[in-house]
Amino acid sequence: MSLLDLFTSGEHKKAKSYFAALVRIAFADGSMDEHELKYLEKMSLKLGISNEEFVKILEYPEKYPLESPFDYNDRIEQLYNFTKMIFSDDEVKMDEAVLVRQMAINLGFPIQNAEKVTDEAIHLIQNKNDFESFSKAIKEVNKF
Questions:
Q1: pTM of the model
Q2: How many domains is the chain built from?
């Protein structure tokens, strides 16, 4: 296996773990609706998830623990997409919000600030902020 193959497979593994986290959020309320499925289909294409992988991850999302990206901006982007997932059906349920808070901690946001970051993320997506505005606001709420 070449170094490029190792890098590519490592990146793909991270993409699958990220996608599995989105699946777990979609199922947080016990079921997945058509809007959540459409969002997952869109994200699978963006992440390079094959149809076979898509089906496996839908069946067993817990087999793919979330791997936090090293880059802070990538973590914010994942939080953005996690939060968009809970709004894909235009209804945020408590189970989904709690899971996004756990994901924020897994992404590396400080435990003592996770609730504040998550509440801000939900507020920003609810008000239809774009990614640039979202990122700027999350960085403000999560000052080091």
A1: 0.84
A2: 1
